[in-house]
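Reviewer 2 asked us to include a model.

Predict the structure of this chain.
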Amino acid sequence: MKKIPRALLFVFTFFLTTGAALGGNTSDFCNIGILVNGAGRHRVTVNGGSFWCHEECLIVSAGDKSRIRISGSELKSNGASVIQINSCDNAVITGCTLLRPMKSHIDPAVVLNGGKVVLGSNFIESRGPGVVIEPGLSSAAITGNIIESVDKKTAIIDHRGTKSSIVIASNAITAFPKDTVSQSAK
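Predicted model (structure tokens):
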């Protein structure tokens, strides 16, 4: 029997058309916790669990037909963004704890590059920005989160331009300077 390195034991990777429901799973000491990749019609649901990773806890690069749902989970990244959404039909992240606490890395907790995203009722702690919105994001609702920056960085950096339909509302911002949302058109 071939020995699998510990760092690869708990990585959940979805490449082909996949339907998956994960509940109460744990990953620790992994580079990436959950990777949803490829142009299939992925349906991935994660309820509860703990994902502590060296790099991203969730990367979604799944074309425009995949649907991702994460709720009630703790996601913690040491050296990269906790969540990176590059492409999908929609991703819904609710009721989670998203942690980016390592002092030597100032990556944002959440990077939204594409798709449609609901980011709501989460606790987000980051050494860098809490959320970065990039121009490829088509629509999003970023509401009801508590966003905390240990190093007093900007809570939400918005680079979306004019082609996106995005609502940013009712977030509780703590430990930030007065200018908590930075907008720039690209």
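The CA atoms of residues 55 and 79 lie 5 Å apart. The chain has one domain: 6-183. We have added this to the supplementary material.
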